[in-house]
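Work Package 3 (structural annotation) set out to generate three-dimensional models for the target panel prioritized at the project kickoff. During this period the team completed the workflow that converts sequence records into discrete structure tokens, so that structures can be stored uniformly alongside our sequence database. As a representative example, we reproduce one entry of 401 residues exactly as it appears in the project archive.
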Amino acid sequence: MISLSPVQSLLACCLVLVIGRVMTTRIGVLARYSIPDPIVGGLLFAVLAYLLSTWGGVAVSLETSIKPTLLLLFFGCIGLTANLKLLARGGPRLIAFLLALVPFLVLQNAVGLGMAWLLDMHPLMGLLGGTITLVGGHGTGAAYATRFADFNNIQDVMPLAMTAATLGLVLGGVVGGPVAEWIMRRHKVSGSLDHTAAEGHQAVDLNEGKPPNPGTFILSMTAAFVCLVVGGMLAALVEDAPVSLPNFLWCLATGVLIRNAGPLVGIRLDDRATDIIGTISLSLFLGMTMMTLDLSSVARLAGPLALMLAVQTLFCALYASWVVFRLLKRDYEAAIMSAAFCGFALGATATAIANMQALTRRHGPAPEAFIVVPVTGAFLVDILNVIVLSSLISLPFVGGM
């Protein structure tokens, strides 16, 4: 057993990100389809760790307790760079995005239920291969898996849920870029290829002038940690509310408040510094997630699960290409949001943002997308998902709970 300390684990993750960037830059197919660096490097590490464990008898253990903090830090930074004036401008697109999302939640579960029926599995297993783990992620998957094990006596449901959620992260990161690239080629849409601006996800709103200095980074970092602390306090206050909202929602909301009310009291952050902090946090989070992918569990649960996820991936790609893009004005922003849709429809909001960052780095900024997608993925999709799942589980032929 090789157990890495927290610092060693962070170093390993940074090396993985560097290798991922080199591979996505120099390998044509990875660059052409805008596959995120953490997905590429993290998967490579997971494969090597699996081979080392299987053939060498040596397991590699990472210290990943910092992952939740990195994710919250990322969403805090998203809020700190969210200009509500842009959100007002993107209001119609937000409504269109939601109009595309609601039927998808129902259809994704219908696909899961249909696959469960074809594979002679319990209907609830179909929901686990639907929005419970794909849209809901690990947290929602763990909650429902515990419920199904306790009330429905379904065996080995927890590893199935965790594996499906983890593979969803991978699939969401892999399929989003190719979908957007295909859309842009087919419909002949393109962005303003400004590489300097594209490195920041809200390039239109980034501060002009001198580059960020240590003082601006410290101010942005302070604001980001304020988001974590205040967001955690707000989440604790409403943890017993009828509808459970994710912790990162409160961090994002705190960031939005600081970003838009701060100038009234003389607090002005450098969006470029904040964006860099958020990007680093997201990259480390996704890198660690991919590095700790348990390929042995994936191998054990292969077969029905793999077939179900393959069908869900195909359905998601087709839906994003033919429905989401058309509802969102059929332009460059719509193509970027279609890739993001694949990200959180199969994985998580973090995967959706990574897809958009990879695409905008190559094709140019998409400021509306970086407002609409986090707002939708942060809490609206969770609320809608809970409503859809509660309705389906209450049906007698599904669960009757």
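Strands lie at 2-3, 60-61.
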